[in-house]
Amino acid sequence: xxxxxxxxxxxxxxxxxxxxxxxxxxxxxxxxxxxxxxxxxxxxxxxxxxxxxxxxxxxxxxxxxxxxxxxxxxxxxxxxxxxxxxxxxxxxxxxxxxxxxxxxxxxxxxxxxxxxxxxxxxxxxxxxxxxxxxxxxxxxxxxxxxxxxxxxxxxxxxxxxxxxxxxxxxxxxxxxxxxxxxxxxxxxxxxxxxxxxxxxxxxxxxxxxxxxxxxxxxxxxxxxxxxxxxxxxxxxxxxxxxxxxxxxxxxxxxxxxxxxxxxxxxxxxxxxxxxxxxxxxxxxxxxxxxxxxxxxxxxxxxxxxxxxxxxxxxxxxxxxxxxxxxxxxxxxxxxxxxxxxxxxxxxxxxxxxxxxx
Amino acid sequence: xxxxxxxxxxxxxxxxxxxxxxxxxxxxxxxxxxxxxxxxxxxxxxxxxxxxxxxxxxxxxxxxxxxxxxxxxxxxxxxxxxxxxxxxxxxxxxxxxxxxxxxxxxxxxxxxxxxxxxxxxxxxxxxxxxxxxxxxxxxxxxxxxxxxxxxxxxxxxxxxxxxxxxxxxxxxxxxxxxxxxxxxxxxxxxxxxxxxxxxxxxxxxxxxxxxxxxxxxxxxxxxxxxxxxxxxxxxxxxxxxxxxxxxxxxxxxxxxxxxxxxxxxxxxxxxxxxxxxxxxxxxxxxxxxxxxxxxxxxxxxxxxxxxxxxxxxxxxxxxxxxxxxxxxxxxxxxxxxxxxxxxxxxxxxxxxxxxxx
DNA sequence: TTGTAGGCGTTATCAC
DNA sequence: GTGATAACGCCTACAA
Lengths: 357, 357
Fold this sequence. Notes:
The structure is a homodimer. By secondary structure, the first copy, chain A, is of the alpha/beta class. The first copy, chain A, contains 12 helices and 12 strands. In chain A, helix 10 (248-261) links the parallel strand 8 (242-245) and strand 9. Chain A is elongated. Chains A and B meet through helix 4, helix 5, strand 2, helix 6 and helix 10 of A and helix 4, helix 5, strand 2, helix 6 and helix 11 of B.
């Protein structure tokens, strides 16, 4: 009785109720223009209830030509950031009756996962943490796509304000009197990281501080990456007094490196992360950071996608010019505010240090 | 062109190749007993390739009466443990051509999510972190189910050896000379926690140590739960010298409470977690713990489920006695070994302390 | 070797 | 009001 062999179908309900199968369908879908005799409707509903009839969503999808399922593509759960985005996304999707097909992809197999999703007729896809620009354009262009944390002229997107995050970081550190500062982050095509770096660098430049190349340290966007990078920073002949990291994972790695090297936070060095993941509150001192509303990013991404879906569904049932109508208007891009969260790793600059680079 | 309006179908391929649609199907499915003219096959394959034909998995599912999709039910990603289980599961599923439908459920909406999954005709379900016993049995009994970390007589399961974990914890702490020890964990129906506690308590009892009720502290299975619980432990008139926590999250909360209270780890107190999540290596000193192979749990759960699926698929195509044949044999239960990981939070007992309770 | 017929479980559009 | 009929895209017989 496993593979649906014993499932009750609409036909079964019809047989028992002594009506035709389409009539059952008519009643069950609550179609407004379904004018059926009250007593028939009553009987059918009762019987359906009794034998536990549940419509087969796959069959529905086939005829409706939409599956009411969306794909969510994330890079890895090692970063809790994406777990939270996913969580927010799943919640909203479930509430709206959509299923979430999960794809956790490395750089290599993104295309295959995407194809698998398309083969399953997902109505749309949410892409987080994987640069859309690295995907073959043809894989995407017949799909409804919403990007998370990567603004795009081509697709709709929902992003935390990464550039503002960088600016906030700079402002915070400057306000504490730091003048010799560093940045640790990946050399990547992921826009969020680039924007954080840019916002940071430009805000510094605005007050006359230019980051020399040894103060922009490249690291993988992970704990170990941050750890290694911070070791290099600490080895510098002329250490910075503050470090801003591209994300909390990197910052936590850096935090650990400081601990191991006996560098006191924040007295010897100020350290600032970005994202605000829970792990940041576990270390001592707790990590100062820039908050990105992770769950909210996922939730909004889904809402945006669903709105797109409704739009294309409506227009495609109307005229044939569905794609045109949608593509004509610029894709919506939501930017959610970033917020500084001061905890224990940032403090005033050591007096006398780094007044000029 | 969004909702599959413009998708190429097998019929389209057939038309262009000048053959019938079933012939295309025959060739594309690589059916062994499909004896088609090499040149026809060649032509069809070429054309399919050219116009980018991809079979509609939904339509396939409808006729095959199986969707090649599985559901994964997890409680929350706030605990990285489940994120990793999910990750392992997704990987194996994807490799086998199965889709993963994600359901993140609270205690309340588990049933609805389960129904949603069934409506979508998932071939099976993996349940982690949600007590199967709390689910209405009827929701489960026409489904292929594999439980993670909760042994069951009714369903197949894959679990870390939680009882052994408790024993290892006890042995480790005893070996360090601790005699007055405490346990922090939730009062829950989740078997893994119960087993950890039981293994721990019984191993202690085996050497004549009985945990008084104030040394078994109840806490929510979260960081904040652990934090609150440890505060209570520290307030005890007669403090234990070592504490074992039901999982790492709790232990990390406890770790934090110690830091706040100025209790030095491991000199003043030994602290031991369970699971081995990455966060444990970020705190100072790093958390000693019992490793549970999280990703492996997810991976094996899927493998087990897939094996079940193949079995029921095979038998149901053979005789009609599918369910019987499967149910007759006890459901397979895999137990993966736990392993002690000694890091920085466990050390020898303070001399003179707690030689007797 | 290939085409034709039928069906998977729904929904939508008609005649009746 | 209700019941055929025709899709949706695919696959498995069986017939040609």
